Amino acid sequence: MRLRAPGCGWGMVAVSAAALLLLAALGLALALILTRESLLHLESVITVFLSVLSGCGGVLTDSEGSFSSPNHPGSYPPNSLCVWVIRVPPPSLVQIHVSYLTVEGPSPCLFDWLEVQEQTEPVCLSCRFCGNVAPPTVNTNSSTVWVTFRSDGSIAGTGFTAQYRAILPGHKSCSREEFMCDSGRCLLPVSVCDGHPNCHDQTDEANCSHKHKECGGQKTGPYGYLSSPNHPKPYPHQQLCIWYLSVEEGHVITLSFTNFSLETQDVCEFDYVEVHDSVDTGAGRVLGRFCGTTFPPDLTSSGPHMTVVFVADEGVADSGFNATYQAVSVLDREQFACSTGECLQPQWLCDGWNDCPDGADEQASSCEFIEVEMCQGLSYNLTSFPNIWLSIADQREAATLLRQYRVLMELACFKPLQRLVCGMFLPQCSPQGGVLQPCRSVCSSAEQQCSQALDLLSFSWPFNCHLLPDSQDPMECSLP
To answer: Coiled coil: which residue ranges (predicted)?
Structure first.
């Protein structure tokens, strides 16, 4: 016979009664406030209610306050759903500052995430956060804001802690080290003067000459070298160096690294070297982005131009890198020999077509046959790892991250979403040994067809399509 602890039965009765009272109160509230606005947010109200019953979330109405993930600073539990509704009196607006963040990542935050949504703008393209870097201050344009924290059933971090406060419309601000643009949008220091405009008015890339000294420039000789400032001593903080390499027509450029030691990161977003197969940073595909202490592979351009970018933030500094480049005649480039004796041009390798009778040209270089179940059956079947975009080491890790893809198959827009996600997680292998990002059109198509469906499931569109290359050339980007 199982013994029941004294008072246990009354405890269960009290909990049940409290739950019934809460349900009754919710029903009464809904009956009293079934306006058009409450109908639109009925599903969200129920979600908040359920999250409160699970021990997290709630409605915050003070002029300022704080909230955090369950168990913080300990690890948050699996399969969590927490929703906070922050409501301040109009015309005041809500400002949110996340002071700490360690949530399973990396971007695009498909598994665990913290999300901020405004009542007046239910769809947000850049308000979902994960990883180990706290986002910049969020200045909203609404007096009611929904903050959602979700976790899946696997890897967990220590979560987040955040503060909010009510501000008047004309008093938006950023933290001291942050940069404000677009009438209230805040950027982290690493995003300022990094060579990529993040503000609509591009003010984050203006007046950057004071930040970048004695690095970068034009190099036009048949060979040469480039290195981070002060190498082999630690490079300075807050650096953006851009080298534009150009050689004679009929030649390509081979870049080789002789020393390489940058700040080690899970995702190369603080200090990194990025190599572009083009005359500048916006004209062609990216051959790779590299950080840490592992030497990048030798990289070869497809034409007579290459652009090399070095970015350093305000944090940890290492000894940097040293690299040499050399012009190589197209006629002297090594060709691939089939078993029949036929010679193939390098651009025919790993292009998805068997040009050798035995298919040996499709097994060359660093190309791998796609084994991840979600991504089989697309118009390309070869990939290359490690994935420099998402810092994924191999296909096994990619398969683990995409293990719940069958849930996405329930969406009517699964096919365009599959093309985009697979293009990001299993990038197409290029003949020159690099990998191709999905084309912007692939991302835009998926966004157009999927964003509304994802919004109904309380997901916001997690990708920024404008960061992808805009081209129809299969050598510039991938159309899976």
So the answer is: none
How far apart CA 425 and CA 402 sit, in angstroms, is 9
What are the distances in angstroms from CA 147 to CA 82, 114, 180, 339? 8, 7, 22, 61
pTM: 0.48
162 with 223, same domain: the answer is no
- Give the range of the structural domain holding residue 445, as residue numbers without chain letter: 365-467
**3-class secondary structure per residue, 447-472:** HHHHHHHHHHCCCCCCCCHHHCCCCC
Count the domains in the chain.
3
Mean pLDDT computed over 144-162:
90
In a domain, 439, yes or no: yes
CATH number at residue 459: 1.10.2000.10
Res 13 pLDDT > 80: no
Residue 350 lies in a domain: no
The pLDDT assigned to 16 comes to: 35
Q: In this structure, are 169 and 40 located in the same domain?
A: yes
Residues in the chain: 480
Sheet holding 305-312, edge to edge: 217-219, 239-246, 305-312, 272-276, 286-290
DSSP states of 63-83 = SEEEEE-TTTTSPPPTT-EEE
* Confidence grade of residue 28 (pLDDT, cut at 50, 70, 90): very low
